[in-house]
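Sequence in, structure out. Go.
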Amino acid sequence: MEIERKYLVAKLPDNLEQFSHIEIEQAYLCTSPTLRIRRMGDSYILTVKERIISSSSAIHNREEEFTLSPQSFQHLLSKCDTGRVAKTRYRIDLFQLTGNENYRNLTAELDVFHGRHNGLLLVEVEFPNTESANRFTPPEWFGEDVSSDPCYRNSFLASMK
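Output:
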């Protein structure tokens, strides 16, 4: 089970390059349930995601991942009807960045989009449970909470012409 919240970014954190990052390319075979293929650096992954309806403001997904060969990835990519999403993902330890104890063991995944989504900045935080997701107060560099807005799902972004 994946429990997360998603935000626009009001201001990029200082010294962004100090954090680990990776280039990601992804596309979608289906959106209900979500069947996503993704290249992350030299890794290739097929993900099956199913959104679970919850009264919480957090996003709840059932998720399974399967390793693909580069050849399988290319074959499946040719089957995708949607466009692709390209982005650089930064993994930011929120406690390391802020020194705030409330952020201990929380990692922000900051996506800086490229190509037709150039300029879009989204940040997600995954939580161990719904309660901690509901209690979360975002750092000041986070912007609007868009967890419930389907326009900021990567599958929607991929479908945009």
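Check: Helices lie at 70-77, 94-98, 130-135, 154-159. The two ends are 31 Å apart (CA to CA).
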